[in-house]
Structures are given as structure tokens and as C-alpha cells.
Amino acid sequence: MDEHQLYDANGDESWTDGFGNPLYAESDLESEDEEHLEIELEREDNEHPQIELENEDGMVSDRYLLDVMSNPALIRNVALVGHWCHGKTEFVHAMMSYVHHVSTLEQINERRICTPYTRIYSDTRLSYRLHLASLILSDNDSTSYLCNILDCPGHVDFSDEMTFALRLADGAILLVDAVQGVMVNTERAIRHAIQKCIPIVLVINKVDRLITKLKLTPKDAYFKLKHIVETVNDQIIAASSTTGNSEVIDPALGNVCFASAKDAWFFTLQSFAKLKVTGNQEIDAVFVVDTGFTDMLVHHILSAKDAAIRKVEHIYTGPKNSTIYKAMEDSDSTGPLMVNVTGMYIHSGVLGRVYSGKIMTGHTVRVLRAEDKLNELMTVKVTKLWVLQACCKIPVSKATPGSLVLIGGVDDAIENTASLCNLESDEDAYKFRLLQFNTFPLVKIAFSLLNGWTLDDISEGLRKIIRSYPIATLRVEKSGVCTISGTGELYLKFIMEDVRQISLDKKGMIIKLNSYRGTFFLCGQYLGG
After folding, report:
1. What is the pLDDT of residues 152-208, one digit of tens each?
2. SS (H, E, C) 204-238
3. What contacts 434, CB < 8 A, 6 or more positions away?
4. 366-425 pLDDT, tens digit each
């Protein structure tokens, strides 16, 4: 601290702006993740001879977004991971408010960028779905990049969604609450990312609460932030003992960002150092959004084009000397089509990443599922393609390598992950590797239908629900009782809420929860059931 630093009557340090003026912050201890239902927001994709950076509302135009999307060197695919209620979804909303030139979540909703809360989210205040936000962000050199941010649920019950996100991403944004620090699911996220050879950058969120909640002095706040960085590095080094990848986190390197999603500001040391005051010029005691976050992604996360070499090596099962393998390594848009699809949304489609070729609406593609043999042929027609901006879906006619898109028309042929390729090719396409989850479906719930209804009446909807939950399993007993397995009580609660939603269309249908009992034996000894 400099000579302008103030001290209170007790001799304790207080926060000043460097000119002797005390900084005041509104004390607000409430800060939660925010989650919204996805809705379809159709926009006209008109052909314009000139690409406009912004439309009449001051928002980045769809045409400009699609133009940047066609260049994989300008794409950064990142998964936003961390512990639950550390503010990941709120951080995405802050980024959206920055991109779309609005200051509050209410203004975001007015522009139809996000949607109202769902009832079940209002009850739990918990994200339970993977959401993709494709945002155009500029770095310090005013170069525009397409940042595909995969917002992952932070609760341990929904870690299968994080597995989906890491399969699609080239880097991980680890978000940590400045007050709570590194928590259990933070450690799980670090280990999972390291196992997948995914580089990590750090965002320390809710820095404002060091003042408003903990009432820390500047010196104590420094040591609090320093401890978080050191703890994250300890976890990275421990997780890297088997992989050999131990790139450390260091604010001096530019891979640590400090943020307050609630107040919509974030910066790195490098970006903050560019704020200069000359002579008697004063600077307002307020933080503003700058390019530090984008610079961090650009310099520490590989582009979709550069990351394809490592990505393909880890997830593709085909020979390395094949034409398809070479096309995926080069992100060749003129090569054979190869798309890895993972996450599925009920009534919407599947989320996939294009590695080579072009996927277009109206084209028939071949589906390679995990359970299929190479000589088995299943074909589907791509009906729609969308670019996602959180809950807003922008329809597009094609997608090129490096892109993350929502694909419609193929969800009936896919269980949880599959490969899409050309219907006809000069050589055989191979599958992408199966997903390796870091949790297991050990908790079960059983239910049956009353008033003359049977499971056959909701079989189609039930199948879509189970497929949208990656690790869930379903079993139907001869008695008509349906048993669903999941990772935890909360996981099953959300599944049953979706089951109730499809039963609303069936007049008089009643869902009855059944007692589920099991019998356990240890060394031939009966333990009870």
C-alpha cells in the first residue's frame, strides 16, 4: 500500500482509492447461481452483403458471430467448472451483460437473452443442466474471438454434465468463491480436468465479499487470495502426478482473473496495470469490465484449431494414418464430416462439436453409436442446427470445424454419446471413445402408474428423459414398477420432476412412489433388506 493509505481509529487498515478517499461497498451477502430454462428464440438469418458488428439494439449481430465461427483459430471452447453456488451461472450472465451492453439481469431478460426462472430452480436455487453460451469477446488488440462457455452444474450429483463439457472443451475455467475458497467439488473438477489433459485457468469470484462480508483489510484480503491460488496449485500438482501435466496457476502469468459476477466486473493483474493516472488526474473508485478475461483465454487456452491435434489423439479410436484423422487434426472444413455429439436436451436436440467437414441442415448423416459394430449402418437426417447463447437459440444452416452446435433430428438415434459422419466415404470412420464418468448411479427410486395407465403410455417421453441425464439408468420390472438409478437424491428429484411434467398431458394419470428394498450379503452372511 502507498502513503495515501488510511487507518481507522483503532489503527486498522481501511480501503482507499489511492487518493485518500475511502471506498464504500454495499453489503449484500446474497449471491447465488442462476439458471434458466431454454426456450427457442427464432431469428431470421438474412443474407447481408456487409457483415455488421452490432445490430440496431447494440448487440453483436448474428451474421458477425457466424463469420467468426467459421474460423477455428478464433474459437475458444472452455468449460466453466467449480463448486456449487460459487457463482458460475451468474458469471456467465455478467459476461452476457458485457457483450450485449446491459447492466442488469432484468435488462438481459427484457432483451430476451435469458428466460424466467423455472419453478424447480426457484425451489432449489441450483443449476442442474449444462448450458452453452457462445459469446463474441474482444482482447486488448480489439481482435474478436468466439468464446463457447460451457456452464457446468457445480453440485456433485450432476458431475456427469461436467464430463460432457470437458469432452467438448479445450480448456477449463475453474471458478472459486473468494470467501469459501477451494471446496470438495472444486477439487473434483481439478482432478477431472487434469485426467482429461485439459489446461486450467482460475477465476476468483465474489471478491467484493471480502469487503462486504469478511470485512478484511487489504493486507488480509491479499493473503486470502494468495491462499486460494496456492491451494489450487497444490491440487493441480497432486492430480498431475500420474499425467505429468503440472502447469501452475500464477496471477503474474495472467492465468488468474479476479471478479465479482454480481457487480459485473473482472480483471487480471495485467489488465489492471494498464489503468494509469498522470499528473493530478483522478480516476473513479470503481471497477469496470475490461479485456483481461479474454486475454487470459486467448493466451492460456489453445484455439479450437491448435487444440484439435491433442483432442483427436485422446478421443478418436481410428488409425492415425487415415485421411479422416488428418482432416480432424487440421480442422479441415473440406474433409470428411466428423462430429462428436454428447449432451442431450429434452425436446431440443443434442450438443456436438464439429472436428472436420461441414454439417448442414437437410443432409443425411451416419450415426456411429458405442454399441454398434462398424458394419452396422444407422442414418438420420439433420433437421436443424442452432448456435446457443445460453437460453437463446440462433438457427444456422451449417457448422464448420471447432464449432459447438445444437443438432436437431438426430436425438432419437443417440443414447448419450455418438459420432456423426458422412453417409458415404472412401474409408471407414471410427467411433469416438466412450465417456469416462467420475461418479456412479448408486441411488435408486421406484414408481408405478395408477388409474389404468401403464409405462407404455409414457415410454417415449420416459426414454427421452433418461437419455438427457447422462449417467441415469432405467429398469422396468415385470410387475410394472419402474426403477431409476442416479447419482444422488437431488439427481433423482430432477428426473422425477421431468417425469411429472410428461404425465400432466395424461388425464387422470397418477404417479405412485414405491418402496425400494435391497438385500445385502457379506461373506455369505445375511445382513437384512
Report:
1. 999 999 999 999 999 999 999 999 999 999 999 999 999 999 999 999 999 999 999
2. EECCCHHHHCCCCCHHHHHHHHHHHHHHHHHHHHH
3. 370, 417
4. 999 876 665 567 899 999 999 987 667 889 999 999 999 999 999 888 877 899 999 887
The answer to whether residues 403 and 293 belong to one domain is no
Tallying the residues shown for the chain, one arrives at 529
Do 197 and 245 meet the contact criterion of CB atoms below 8 Å apart?
A: yes
Q: Which residue has the cell 438474412?
A: 46
What's the number of CA atoms in the CB half-sphere (13 Å) around residue 394?
Answer: 24
Residue 409: HSE in the Cβ half-sphere, 13 Å Cα cutoff: 18
* Beta-carbon contacts of residue 214 (< 8 Å; ≥ 6 apart): 179, 221, 224
Residues 245, 189 share a domain: yes
Quote the distance between the C-alpha of residue 326 and its chain's center: 28
Do 175 and 87 contact (CB within 8 A), yes or no? Answer: yes
Among 516, 507, 513, which residue's Cα sits nearest to residue 448?
A: 513
Domain that holds residue 513: 443-528
Residue 74 amino acid letter:
L
How far is the C-alpha of 295 from the C-alpha of 519, rounded, in Å?
56
Q: Do strands 443-450 and 404-408 pair parallel, antiparallel, or not at all (unpaired)? A: unpaired
* 294 and 357 assigned to the same domain: no
Which triple of cell numbers denotes residue 438?
467420475
Asked, for residue 79, whether it belongs to a domain, the answer is yes
For residues 29 and 213, the answer to whether their CB atoms sit within 8 Å is yes
**36 domain residue, yes or no:** no
Give the whole-angstrom CA distance, residue 52 versus residue 224.
45
